[in-house]
Amino acid sequence: MTIPAKVIEDTARELMARAAIDIPPDYRDGVRLARDRETGKLPRFVLTEMLRNWDVATGERRPMCADTGLPRYYVRLGNEAIVEGGLVALERALRRATADATASVPLRPNRVHPLTREDQNNNVGIHAPEVTYAVEPDADWIDVTTVHKGGLFGSDYRMLFPGDGITGIKRFFVDTLIESGKRGLACQPAIVGVGIGGAKDTCVRLGKEAACLRVVGSVNPDPAAARLEEELTALGNYIGIGAMGFAGTSMVVATHVELAHTHTGGMPIAIHQFCLSSRRASARIHPDGCVEFHHDPRWFTDYYRRAGIE
Amino acid sequence: MGIERLDDVRMDEVHLTTPIPADAIAGLELGDVVYISGVLYTAREGVYRQVVERGLPLPAGLRDLSNVTLQCSPAVTVRPDGGHDVAAVTATASFRFGKSMALWFERSGARVVVGKAGLTELAYREWFVPHGAVYLTTVGYGMGAAYGHCIKRVRDVHWLAELGIAQALWVLEVEEMGPFLVEGDAEGRSLFALANREIDARINEVYKNLPPPTLSRFGEVLSRTDEVV
Question: What is A5-22+64-150+280-294's CATH number?
Fold first, then answer.
């Protein structure tokens, strides 16, 4: 049985609206906890107002933040899944849904030509929206996740070396958080994604996926990564910066570390912060046309993180 | 006078109507929680290019209508009758527009800037204080829905064809729009500067066991002729 392209387009359009409007419950709970623990009067006020903003967004079906970021997709293809019209039809469906949703949700038409700054007013253009693919064995469905992330502030890349060690990772983590944390440029408290290893582009991609595609409360199955996640979260909240850069305790809601085997001489690292409008929405589309919407993108599967030859 | 510590801010609630009179602007204290009713209009790169760089006049009548400008672009729907509804508004980082501010105040008559993340005290003293202007920061950031809720109607839009939806000048009728926090007051003091002083007092403690990495970067070395290794 083939998955109808029309179902993919309708689902993608609905995902665009859900991502823009409804804050994911795992992040919302994390922020509520941060608010309850926050000792600073101003950052506490800020987080209380943010919780109210999400109620207004969901209640009135308004985008939670007017900067609706750069809408993009992550698609996981079941090995046995067949899309009507093939993957070209799938990509067309995703591009059409993006343009439609820009007018209907509405999303801010953020995408412009990088040099002329010309805006097509539909969030579609050269390499836009980005579509990232992964595969899953023994499955006949496809998973579609959309992420709306801003991103002018709060992400960085650096080539570290083995000798820099865990301490070097922590130093870079603190540097990045403080640099964009003052005045709240990164719109913290954030879900911080840390990609370590691979080549430069690998760690940048993994750090972004770690921030945007793992739910708050998830833990990396690698014990060394899991320990680092815990230590970095504690360190981030020890800095003394809260929401909007006011002195406080709420800098990090969660830290997600993802690893890739890397060059023996290096330790490339990238950090991304998924902000107070951490927008993602996911759906699994089955070959019978049935669509299940869910909050967990389920992106980091065991197969995706595999280490062996098979 | 003045607030010495962040936790000393009183966060008094202040309700203002546009155009906001000079004495009300001068009376705002750091950390006051402000709600605005009346008319305000958006301005960012595109509008500053028109008014500050190209010297075009502000659209007719706007100067008398409001002295409050919002550094943002909205998420907008086009109604079947061709009108517009603003679903959400969120401010964009203001430090980028500092250099446009003095001429902007002169030519627009604006005296209250609502934005994201403020400017430095130096910038306030140089560009805001001489014009009697103050800076309010949006809260969050990203209270797009809550602010959008306070927009009663789009009164007008200017330069839409030239600048596009994101950069056009939107004239908005608002009711109790807020909360905004007073970040830069009439004397050029900054709430964020106060916060930074408290944060910086702990910086050495935070970095105590975190030495710099093996390889430096330009910016971390003082001269472009220095090596980074």
Answer: 3.30.1330
